[in-house]
Amino acid sequence: MGHERATSMPKLFRIHSNTLLTALLCLLFVQSLSAQTLKDRKGKPLQVGLQLYSVRADCAKDLPGVLKAVAQMGYTGVEFAGYHGRSAEELRKLLAENKLKCYGTHLDLNALLGDNFDKTVAFCKGLGCKFLVVPWLPEERRNSKQAVLATAQLFGEIARKLEPLGMTLAWHNENYEFKPVEGSSQGETIWDIFWANADKHVAMQFDIGNAMDAGVQAAPYLSKYPDRVLSVHVKDHSTTNPNALLGEGDEHWNEVMPLLKNKIAARCFIIEQESYGEPPMVCVEKCLRNFEKLWNAK
Q1: What was the pLDDT predicted at 26?
Q2: Using only C-alpha atoms, what is the Rg of the chain?
Q3: pLDDT for the residue numbered 35
Q4: Alpha-helical segments (H) within 108-166
Q5: What is the pLDDT of residue 33?
Q6: What is the pLDDT of residue 101?
Q7: CATH architecture of 38-296
Q8: What are the sequence ranges of the domains in the chain?
Q9: Does residue 166 sit in helix, strand or coil?
Q10: Are 66 and 58 within 8 A, CB to CB?
């Protein structure tokens, strides 16, 4: 019995060693798939950020923990939508500790008007944020053609003030911009009127999911002003699945991805998720994995 056990041990050792080696190889393969290094059309690492509004409840509880986890998922930066009571310097330090970049911040338009302008600029300088995005317009600034024209003019004035400071102003669409506006004789939409009249210094952040929510595919809009699209919210929308993640909705990604890769001037791509079938942190990691698959698809 002792002899049989002694002679069988090398064989058992080889079996266990082979099993362990196979398991390690599988683990390494899975890890290589989990966070791929994406390249842009120039062969440089792709800039993919997370809009922190996607995980706002988690940020309110533990912002340092969220930023650490986001970096570990493979995101290269974030976009802010609120600061959770932290100073610009605190936020900048947290980003640096996790090797994350600040790809922008969402601001109320009033933050860029009157006496608020200098305060906002000072905060953004401290944060290291150069891309200031207005994500929503109050009713009175979009309820008629004249209102939209005045808003476009105002954005141009702000953009020209920001440019010498090394900052860019952008407008981000919701869903209401794609409906005909009152006072338009040709059925023009808010989006049409704004971009036909906005100063060249005003950049576009196109939200794909919000457009889909309005019933329009993104490709024709991305193609219209490609040089002005400096940022994209990569998001999906489904009429049948309210919790659809990126790549699971109604967007025609086979039409959109070639534009994201080769036509528009986007500096970065921002993933956002606003509905959840699972915990938000799980959802945003899955969205990033889905984006990697879409980007690398032939």
Answers
A1: 42
A2: 23
A3: 60
A4: 116-127, 145-162
A5: 44
A6: 98
A7: Alpha-Beta Barrel (3.20)
A8: 1-34, 38-296
A9: coil
A10: yes
